[in-house]
Write a structure and sequence with these properties.
Strand content of chain A: under 5%
Strand content of chain B: under 5%
Structural class of chain B: mainly alpha
Radius of gyration of chain A: 45 Å
Distance between the termini of chain A: 128 Å
Structural class of chain A: mainly alpha
Largest sheet of chain B: none
Shape of chain B: rod-shaped
Number of helices of chain A: 9
Helix content of chain A: over 70%
Helix content of chain B: over 70%
Shape of chain A: rod-shaped
Number of strands of chain B: 0
Largest interface: A-B, 57 and 54 residues
Number of strands of chain A: 0
Order of helices and strands of chain B: HHHHHH
Oligomer: heterodimer
Number of helices of chain B: 6
Chain lengths: ~250, ~140
């Protein structure tokens, strides 16, 4: 810009003309404007910095809290599901060593060790559904499971019958379990024997289970074939009474 | 200006509250982590939650057999501090079934069960008196045949 007095070139920031030394009145206005703008800028800067400091204090803490909550939930879930880890591991190992597992299970079944077969299958956590590696053993497993349960029900009955506590508290429940165990076993065996997809050796194992259990019921409970047939045709509410009469003579 | 001051004053209070929340969550995380480790150790320990020693002291052979089967000891034996109790349960289980197979004339299964009983007898150690009691109970079982 030009000095109004001498016409010389004067910069807007100069307080006076470098040529004539007179004061630069436009500069004063400019400086006032600049000071005002600077103050407003500083105020705005402080406001932004203040809010940002607030966020920088809070945001990391919120992130830490979110992380801790997620970690706590994950560990709680792992605790509840922990029992699955070894079971799933054994199942995968059994599927990798299917031949050896089948050989072991065949051994148990061929020797008539049906309880051990059930225990082994449960321990290995193997799947016997249709289409799975061990599906051939599925039907046999269900029969063997009821067989093992029924043997245990008879063992329980005879090993605890002299205990007063059993007589008082558990006898009724155990008799009901024995009764339903007999029904479950024979119904399952009958159903399995009727399946056309049951293998020959499966049929042999199931037939052996039927014969063995029929003999055990006769030997331990006095249920010969005639009485067993009569028992199986009884309505549910008569079965326990029938068993008690047969076992205890009551 | 007052708003800026107010904002600066709020932030420390909020930060302090969050610090308390973080501290509480850290304690909770430590507790949950300890529980998780404890659960993982228990599931890999087949002796955890075992009651067979209590049942053997009570002479409850039926419940001993239940524990013996429940832990799949009959098909998947494992190193256990309750080995003697498990073997006593195996003896009771085999003795009960041997009675039937012997009466039915099944020599193969009778021999196998007798072998299992002898194996258990060799391993029961201090619980040998239990076997005598089991033999007594078996001899007193009602005979329908």
């Amino acid at each position: 810009m030009k000095c109004p007095y001498c016409g010389g070139e004067v910069a807007l920031e100069d307080k006076e003309c470098p040529y004539c030394g007179r004061p630069n009145e436009q500069s004063a206005g400019h400086r006032k404007d600049m000071e005002r703008y600077q103050k407003r800028f500083s105020a705005a800067e402080k406001t932004v910095a203040g809010k940002t400091k607030g966020y920088t204090r809070i945001l990391p803490r919120v992130l830490v809290i979110l992380f801790l909550v997620i970690a706590i939930v994950a560990m709680a879930v792992i605790s509840e599901q922990a029992w699955q880890f070894p079971e799933n591991g054994r199942r995968r190992a059994a599927e990798r060593n299917a031949e050896a597992v089948c050989e072991t299970m065949d051994g148990f079944l061929d020797r008539g060790e049906y309880s051990a077969f059930v225990s082994y299958a449960e321990y290995q956590n193997i799947r016997m559904y249709y289409g799975e590696t061990f599906s051939e053993y599925g039907d046999v497993y269900y029969c063997a499971n009821y067989f093992a349960d029924l043997v245990y029900d008879m063992e329980k009955l005879y090993l605890r019958r002299d205990q007063e506590e059993w007589q008082k508290w558990d006898k009724a429940g155990d008799m009901r379990m024995l009764s339903s165990g007999i029904i479950n076993f024979f119904e399952t065996v009958s159903y399995t024997e009727g399946r056309s997809d049951l293998s020959e050796r499966g049929r042999g194992w199931v037939a052996d289970m039927r014969e063995t259990m029929t003999g055990m019921l006769d030997y331990y409970l006095g249920l010969d074939e005639e009485k067993l047939s009569e028992y199986l045709s009884l309505p549910e509410n008569r079965r326990v009474v029938y068993l008690e009469e047969a076992i205890f003579g009551e | 200006m007052n708003k800026n001051n107010a904002a600066r004053e709020k932030a420390p209070v909020a930060a302090r509250v969050l610090n308390v929340v973080i501290a509480v969550l850290l304690v909770a995380a430590a507790i949950v982590c300890a529980r998780m480790i404890s659960q993982l150790k228990k599931v890999y320990d087949r002796d955890s939650y075992a009651s067979i020693d209590y049942y053997s002291q009570q002479g409850d052979y039926a419940r001993m057999i239940y524990e013996y089967r429940r832990r799949n000891y009959d098909a998947a034996p494992f190193e256990s501090k309750y080995e003697e109790e498990y073997e006593a349960a195996a003896y009771a289980d085999a003795a009960f079934q041997k009675r039937y197979f012997e009466a039915a004339g099944d020599e193969a299964r009778t021999a196998e069960l007798a072998r299992r009983m002898e194996e258990a007898r060799a391993k029961v150690g201090d619980l040998t008196p239990l076997l005598a009691d089991i033999d007594r109970i078996m001899s007193e079982l009602p005979k329908h045949k």
